Amino acid sequence: MTAAARHRVLRRPSVVLATACVLLALPLTACRDDRVASARSATFAEPGRVVVMARDNTFAPDVIEVAPGTEVVWENRGRNDHDVISIDGSSWGVAEIDFPPGAAYSHVFDEPGTYDYVCTLHGTERMIGMVGTVVVTG
What is the pLDDT of residues 77-102, one digit of tens each? Predict the structure, then answer.
């Protein structure tokens, strides 16, 4: 390809737009919060701290697997109030009055088992809508 032909290819709007999108996205991936990035993984083998983001109409991630003794922190990163309510009626969870946008709630899971939860404002106990699961391995 001649230099003139290369110059014409680069001037095409779609090529310029695609190049600009890639260049703009690179700094965003380099500056991510590692704590949040680690929460996107579905499996956590070591005790520690895991963040689940409550966004508008979704928990991210919605299913996590953790070791006993792990602190799970729910952060309300949405624009709406949410709650985190245990489906089995256990005492852990947070009401919407204590979980407005920007708030956080945490619970340490010590016992192996499967713990389903729901935002009662945006989901149902039949695990439809804004729901999540914490699996504590043995």
Answer: 999 999 999 999 899 999 999 999 99
